[in-house]
Amino acid sequence: MSVPDDTGTPLLDIRDIDVVYRGAGWRRPSFHALHAVSMRVGAGETVGLVGESGSGKTTLGRAVLGLAPITGGTVTFDGVDITHAHRRARRALSRDIQVVFQDPYSSLNPAMTVETILAEPLRAQGVARAEATARIGELLHQIGLEADAGRRYPREFSGGQRQRIAIARALALKPRLIVCDEPVSALDLSTQARILDLLIDVQEKTGVAYLFISHDLSVVRYVCHRVAVMLKGRIVETGDGDVVTSRPEHPYTNRLLMASPIPDPVRQAERRRRYAAL
Fold this sequence. Notes:
The protein is about 35% helix and about 25% strand. The chain is an alpha/beta fold. It has a domain at about 105-175. α6 (about 190-205) links the parallel β7 and β8. It starts with 11 loop residues before the first strand and ends with a helix.
């Protein structure tokens, strides 16, 4: 996997982002979910955001998508400040920024055929029916499903196939950035590998960038050019994907690495002893 050149202006530039969730009542204090978080994603690049549950990584993805309350800092996309973009601007941004959610079972409408699911973002952007039909055929071919899959319902597909459909929906408008929020965590290992290979293949063919959110360092190592590690709403380590996921410097990243088992119990025990001595 080639490393994109990120020395120029980044596609996505997050600077000193704060997210605070206000308490529901006067007795409930506010929750400070993100603390001055900064990161960049270049065109055609995959940047991994890794951390345990509750670390704030999904909140950052939601902030980029306009789904979390940004109380400080800025989010810039292709040089344009989208920190507090209004609804119409967000609708226009959906051509360039899309999302793939964690659960392929709940992220697809069970009452809609695959063809209708894939046509929905195209119709929302005013794409003509004939053009939309041709685009749906391209998408099904791109994700490795037969053309007649468009007439079937999500319940007729496996978990991996459903996630492929979710990826196709995200690709429908040919976006420049996709926020991938734990896109393989609900899948078995062999299916995970196929989905990750699909994401890499799509990126090589289209140049799309990914903000890849995960708790699994082994997954992040496989697919990401650079990695940022988040703990309690703060970035504690960042760097080259291979380095951060194999020779981390921060103790928290070391703990994440030890939490990812390897198939050899002897090597696993040796690794745990080595990091315990740090």
